[in-house]
Amino acid sequence: MDEQQLRIFVDLVRQYFDRETGRLPEIGSPHLGDATALPIYDFTGVIGISGERQGCVYVTAYREMLRALLLQVGETDVADNNLCDLVGEVANTISGNARIHFGPNFMISVPIVVKGTAQAIQVPRNIKAYIIPLRWHKHEASLVVSLQ
Amino acid sequence: MTFKLMIVDDSNIIRGKISRTLTQHRMEIVATAANGEDAIKQFSANQPDVVTMDLTMPRMDGLECIRKLRRMKPDLRILVVSALADKATAIQALKEGAQGFLCKPFSEDDLTDAMDELLGETHG
């Protein structure tokens, strides 16, 4: 992945929050992550990527952010199953929107959602993983992009 | 006139958002489904006039479901609501028989505008 491709994901994160909430997130400096110590917060939505590109894209967020985001989009039931659903949908939307730039052979899986921090997210060890930190409504989250 | 709507999406959040928005917009929600297989079953039982259809879903994806639904009811109106934002996917969905395509993320106004366009086009 090059800087221009990383910029695509930064823009898609901004676009997601802007369209869903009318409030842009603050984006931290994207940086290369250590595959053995990638961020994982309360809820994580993982999208597997296949086709012309291989790897994964995941969104990981704290419970408080997802609760706030749920309420913002008009959903009053903030039970864990909806928080899981939401983090998967955020990951799905950002990954699906990336096809505007990467084309239809950028194949995305249905979301796999991990609750809790006990399980590490397995990203391909031979592919660099970039971390895009973000903050929305004072809540932190990260988008991790690991693409061949 | 009120239309009977079936919402097909694997996200409960999205199904809720579509339901809340379109209930106030001439739509009666007669069924919801989280994948294509369930949508086929729900369709037979509830005979909706209009369907909103996600594409990336487990068990049976949206494109296959559109093909099957079109065979069951050729004049069914289908609005695809998907994160797959590339032009090729939109064209393929339209070829399979959808009449409208709305990209996620979407606002309530985006959805009602897309639905108005869908219904306006098919009714002339």
Describe the structure.
The complex is a heterodimer of chains A (148) and B (124). Chain A starts with a helix and ends with a strand. The longest helix of chain A has 19 residues, at 3-21. Chain A has 148 residues and is an alpha+beta fold. In chain A, 34% of the residues lie in helices and 30% in strands. Chain A has helices at residues 3-21, 63-72, 80-97, 99-102; strands at residues 26-27, 31-33, 43-51, 55-61, 106-108, 112-115, 129-136, 139-147. In chain B, helix 2 packs parallel to helix 3. Chain B has one domain (3-123): 3-Layer(aba) Sandwich (Rossmann fold). Chain B contains five helices and five strands; from the N terminus they run E-H-E-H-E-H-E-H-E-H. Chain B has a five-stranded parallel sheet with strand order 2-1-3-4-5, with helices on both faces. With 124 residues, chain B is α/β, with parallel strands linked by helices. The mean pLDDT of chain B is 94. The A-B interface holds A 15-16, 19-20, 70, 73-75, 81-82, 85-86, 88-89, 92-97, 99-100, 103-104, 108-110 and B 10-14, 16-17, 20, 56-58, 82-86, 88-89, 103-107.
**Can you tell me the overall shape of chain A?**
globular
Secondary-structure element series of chain B: EHEHEHEHEH
Biggest interface and residues each = A-B, 27 and 23 residues
Average pLDDT metric of chain B = 94
Give the CATH class of chain B: Alpha Beta
**Percent of residues in beta strands of chain A:** 25-35%
Largest sheet of chain B: 5 strands, parallel
Q: Tell how many strands the DSSP assignment of chain A holds.
A: 8
- In total, the number of domains of chain B comes to 1
